Amino acid sequence: MTIIAYKSGMMAADSNATSSGTIVGFSNKIARNKKGDLAGACGDAIYGHAFRQWFLKGEKGDPPDATDPGKPDSSSNGVIVRCNGVVERFEFKGKHVQECPYFAMGSGRDTALGAMYAGATAAQAVAAAIAHDIACGGAIVILRH
């Protein structure tokens, strides 16, 4: 799985790529566009790649569909954090806009949210998730607006 965290202009993510509980490699899960907006995706690797490419190519047309007919319980989703701090979360069939002081998604979400609540940066929150969630790991990737 994944951990992606955002707080105070910083987005951080782990880099593990897993399949059914097995580490199968490493991947980049976050991106920054020319405007300085930040984006990330978790869940299915194909969805994550398609979401980041859609974001980097100017968000033209509809975002990739996060549903997988072969996996009806799939939990793929994406996020864009605009330079003004507005969080746009993309899930199956739609987008939800929210304003929040910090944000996290993926299997390490609960640990990362708790760490940021206690004062951690996004990078420190990802490190906490890696330390406590067996599905998170690898190098920490950091981007800023």
Please tell me about this protein's structure.
With 145 residues, the protein is α+β, with helices and mostly antiparallel strands. The relative contact order is 0.28. It has a five-stranded antiparallel β-sheet, covered by helices on one side. Strands 10-1-2-11 form a four-stranded antiparallel β-sheet, covered by helices on one side. A two-stranded antiparallel ribbon has the order 3-4. It is 22% helix and 34% strand. A hairpin with a 2-residue loop joins strand 1 and strand 2. The longest helix is centred in the middle third of the chain and has 12 residues. The chain is built from three helices and eleven strands.
Please tell me what the overall shape is.
Answer: globular
Q: If helices are DSSP runs of H or I spanning 4 or more residues, what is the number of helices?
A: 3
The major sheet is characterized as: 5 strands, antiparallel
**Total beta strand runs:** 11
- Which range does the strand content fall in? 25-35%
Spell out the helices and strands N to C. Answer: EEEEEEHEEEEHHE
What's the helical proportion of residues? 10-25%
**Overall average residue pLDDT:** 93
Comma- or semicolon-separated keywords:
145 residues; alpha+beta; five-stranded antiparallel β-sheet; four-stranded antiparallel β-sheet; 11 strands; globular
What's the gist of this structure?
With 145 residues, the protein is an alpha+beta fold.
